[in-house]
Amino acid sequence: MGALDQELAQELAAWEAQGLTRREQALGGMVDFVTNDYLNLAQAPRLVEAASRAAEQYGAGGRSARLLGGGSGLDREVERAAAEWLGAEDGLLFPSGFQANTGLVPALVGPGDLVVSDALNHASLIDGARLSRARVEVHNHLDAEHLEHILEQGSGARRKLVLVEGVYSMDGDAPDLGLWSRICARHGAALVVDEAHSLGLLGPAGAGAWAASDGDPSVLAARVVTGGKALGAMGAVVVGSTTLRNHLVHRARGFMFSTAVAPAVAGAFLAGIELARAADSSRDRVLGLARDLAEALGLPTPAAAIVPIPTGSLHCAIQASTELRAKGLDVRAIRPPTVAPGSERLRVVCHSHNKPSDLRDLVTTLKELNLPAAGAVEPSLPGASPLVVLGTDTDVGKTIVSAALLRAASKEGPAHYWKPVQSGPDCDTQTVKSLSAGEVLTPGYTFDLPASPHEAARAEGREVDLDQLDRVLTEHLTRPGILVIEPAGGVQVPLTDECLQIDWLARHRLPCVLVARSGLGTLNHTLLTLEALERRNMRPRALILVGPHHPSNHDTLARMSRLPVLELPLLDPLGSEALDSWLEKQDLGCVLPTRMVSTR
Known about the structure:
Aspartate Aminotransferase, domain 2, 3 domains
């Protein structure tokens, strides 16, 4: 086994120890409460026949990219049929929904632009936003107020794009697309709606969530129509204007550089559209079953076919799934990283072919499992709302800022502070404890030498175990309320001989703020730090300058970073009253989660 394989084996062992190992598991004759084949079209004879006819006429493979003669005449038929169904001018067919989103977003925006994405958007939208190299901001899930706040802050962007899903795949909830479109209109933003889990189920003739809304069509840039869910096939079509299609042909890399879909896929996709449009009774049945299930379990009414059931813990989710499958009911446990730590759940999907007796068996078994009552666990949020307080260097004021933010959060609900690594005799944890009312947690590691974590650990013959830090972080994220995390020193200090602190933080993708000095020398340090964070998709929520007011530095950093800038003067004497006085004058809406921003 090579060195890389050994490292990968260790990572897999760590996943196994945390109960996060994944394995492919086919249905195997069980009752399907897991797949996204909502209308049972994947097994429909007409789809199978359409796929077979297309393969016989055009061959088995797509052969090459469509710009090099690949695909078949069915591709344009699929595009036109999808566009006509959704009331759009035209569409462009991609091999998958993932490729559609990662092709669409970078084709529309780039450096100098702003992308605003819901916190629970699908990985394909997240990756598309990252690939675009635009500035990416994330708003709290379905939080219209937070969305509007971000758009207001991004008024200087060349182009603004808001990404949203018609129905969310793990929570089964949905945005008010009419409201979303009006917010976009007020701020000159365009809207992209991923209809993956709403198509075929919502709207007239199953045309999706947008068709069911009172949205302003002037802001709608595109909708993504996936073939692999309610339509029973594969692939995806981006529908919109003729101009959009022509633009994507020239700019969407997932279209330009991918082999066209197999003719059989296009044939099945086309048949799926025809059948789904006419499936009113099937979609009514699906939506009715989902509502009945949620009502029987005392859960919120789902937006479509997906009913998330909170389990309270990772162990309970896995155990419940195992017991349900043992009774022939295929319900899967949803675990990190698909959902945030602390929000593990069962994900039940209703289908047109599910029988009332299947539903009764499911409800009976779930009640026997004695899972948490509805509302005991929020399925769409982690236990903690984390905020990492980063610094451009050591002694820039991170600890005082952490204490202030913890103090503000603790006035509105539970709040916790954690330092992953403490090095040196000056104990930041004790400083925060003396200045704040929140709970101060034990550091992950404590070393005596005032040096970078890797050097301080080496001086004691020790080493920072990143897997252990991961496990402690995961545990702390199950706590309710705010979790303020203060790393050691500047963002690029080494945690180990191989891993910088910024790289460990980047793999967790936690929201952050950046603390810097206000005075001479801050421009270079701060802009270099921001560049390093941007490269790792860790754009801070705000920049906090500590020290005497320096108008030129403040204005330069506000303009070049395009971040909200707060200023914390040197407090003398430093104490809880001084922090409260400063907090009373601050608008922390750009820093702390919306439900925790009031300090009055």
